[in-house]
Design goal:
four-stranded antiparallel beta sheet; three-stranded antiparallel beta sheet; Serine Threonine Protein Phosphatase 5, Tetratricopeptide repeat; about 475 residues; alpha+beta; single chain
Length: about 475
């Protein structure tokens, strides 16, 4: 990167930071994902069509008009607001639900126990992947979710995550906190850095990333300018990766690795990017290369417990539980009690069905927890699994709940598919003027959708753990 380009890039960053600082004192808000409202709108539209078919025209028109006016109005007013100290769910529907069941519609920052982010591949265009992120905040039995899709998400998410403890975030949330940026700005930075487009890189990237990164290649940084360039390339690579420009991100990582071939964190971030591209392109050789890079980063992590825990979490995400357990245990053996490592070991033990080990590791996590919210969460997990271990009746109830929840989730998909299969019968009956076929289609689709709605409500109820007090009440009686 030339001096003029670097100066332009620095000026662009300063302007962005100045804008963020100017707006940091104002409450931030983001609209809640409209999936629930869209579902309600589709169901009400179906109901109005059914009423028209039954020649109840006034009722059908009323349902159609009210739903298409009221539901969008409710959706536009349903937001999550961040005032610097808490997340608040606004809107008429959350207020009514809060009044009905006395649930919480706000979550203070110091009450947040876990933050989890899901990355969903929304679309692919050439060598670029368009991701949609869904970040969920949990604490004190409350759950708030925000989804990407605009500038509001890029403003509110880092503002919240920077105020939370590291151990409350999963690896994707931590990456979004540090590297989430506006895609157009990221592409501008890539142009300044002379990173070719995805179309240019697609034919040559596989060969470029198959070089052995465990050997010293290129020139080690010998000046502050080389160090700054390596830092800029690393930051740019992460921003490109989170924006979905995987090929350009790999090229930026490759250039940074030429300057710093033994940087453990740089190798780790390169490995995660390469594994994502291997999954998109379905290339097993690149996937093996990514895993090899993860192991190289593990060997060079040294005393960096944060990096070692993230490496173990990455192993866990790609399905290598054995290796993840080895890294977590290595952290515990070398550095003593560590919240993230103990929590990881508990999750691995839970996957293997070793309840006694789960209890032990959650108790260790409780001792190492650095905030009241993490201590509360780990203590609750310890108590829950201790009750499962000690009370057979409670364990049977919870196993039954989980099995029933799995059945409900499977049945939901089946009911929805049956409803969609019945729609062509309705259309065919109406076009062919065959009342029998149309009646069958309406009956099957109506019953299927009613069952689907009932299963959705049942699934929400079953997703909550059974209070242990119920067992005591039954024993007393």
């Amino acid at each position: 990167m030339k001096g003029a380009d670097r100066a332009n890039l620095s000026r662009l960053r300063e302007e962005t930071l100045a804008e963020e600082a100017a707006s940091s004192t104002e409450p931030l808000s983001i609209r809640v994902s409209p999936h629930g409202y869209l579902t309600a709108l589709l169901l009400s539209t179906f109901l109005s069509a059914l009423l028209f078919y039954l020649e109840l025209d006034i009722a059908g028109f009323a349902v159609f008009a009210i739903s298409w006016i009221l539901i969008p109005f409710l959706a536009l007013g349903d937001k999550i607001i961040f005032d610097g100290k808490r997340l608040i769910r606004s809107g008429l529907v959350p207020r009514a639900w809060n009044w009905f069941n006395r649930s919480r519609r706000q979550l203070r920052l110091y009450d947040i126990e876990q933050v989890e982010t899901q990355a969903i591949r929304a679309a692919r265009r050439g060598g670029n992947i368009f991701y949609r992120y869904r970040t969920t905040f949990r604490g004190k039995g409350s759950c708030l979710t925000i989804a990407s899709g605009g500038d509001d998400f890029r403003r509110i998410l880092p503002s919240v995550l920077t105020k939370l403890p590291e151990n409350a975030l999963d690896i994707r949330s931590a990456e979004l906190r540090d590297h989430l940026a506006e895609p157009k700005e990221v592409l501008t930075r890539a142009e300044f850095a002379r990173i070719p487009s995805a179309e240019v890189l697609e034919g040559t990237m596989r060969a470029a990333v198959r070089h052995r990164i465990d050997k010293d290649q290129g020139i080690r940084p010998k000046s502050n300018e080389d160090e700054e360039r390596a830092d800029e390339l690393q930051s740019l690579a992460n921003e490109l990766r989170l924006s979905g420009y995987l090929l350009q991100a790999l090229e930026a990582f490759r250039r940074a690795l030429v300057l710093r071939p033994k940087d453990a964190r740089l190798i780790f971030e390169f490995a995660r990017c390469l594994h994502s591209w291997a999954g998109v392109s379905k290339d097993r050789r690149l996937e093996r290369k990514a895993i090899a890079a993860l192991r190289l980063s593990e060997r060079r992590a040294g005393q960096d417990t944060g990096l070692l825990n993230q490496i173990a979490e990455s192993y866990f995400q790609i399905g290598d539980g054995k290796r993840a357990g080895a890294v977590f245990q290595n952290v515990l053996d070398r550095f003593g009690d560590n919240f993230a490592a103990a929590r990881g070991m508990a999750e691995l033990a839970l996957r293997e069905g070793k309840i006694a080990h789960v209890i032990h590791h959650f108790a260790s996590a409780n001792r190492a927890a650095g905030t009241p919210s993490l201590r509360r969460w780990s203590r609750n997990e310890t108590d829950y699994f201790s009750r499962l271990h000690d009370d057979e009746e409670y364990m049977e109830m919870e196993i039954g709940r989980v099995n029933l929840l799995e059945t409900v989730e499977t049945s939901k998909g089946t009911a929805l598919r049956i409803a969609f299969i019945a729609f062509p019968l309705i259309i065919f009956g109406l076009i062919a003027d065959d009342n029998l076929v149309a009646d069958i289609g309406w009956a099957v689709s109506t019953v299927s959708l009613l069952i689907w709605v009932g299963l959705m409500v049942t699934g929400r109820m079953l997703s909550q753990r059974i209070p242990y007090e119920i067992v005591h009440d039954r024993a007393d009686h």
